[in-house]
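Researcher: Re-running this chain for the archive, since the previous output was lost when a drive failed. Same request as before.
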Amino acid sequence: VMDRMYVSRLPLLSLVGVYLHEKENPQPLYLDLSMKISLAEAADSDDLEDTLDYSGLCHDIQAAAAREHCNLIERRLTDLLEIVMWDSRVEEVTGRLYKPGAVPGAEISVERTLKRSA
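Model: Regenerated structure tokens:
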């Protein structure tokens, strides 16, 4: 049985979009993550080394989101999910990336899942 770790509504500032103003002005995005990872070792040892350091992960994701421009949130989300997979203990990650300013009055988001190949 695989456990899960969640990050909800992580705030990001990102240059994302196809329009000129989106290429010049970072926009707020939000990220939800659901990670399949065994928490048994950490639950037993009570040691940070035995689990995913979610604080460090969130910092890495926020820094990556702020770097270079990309046109599509689909691309941005995939790049951020690949950072999660750097930790070999993560079996699978599902991410949902929200772009609140995309359509007035609506909440637009995309979701992807990356799995570690057997």
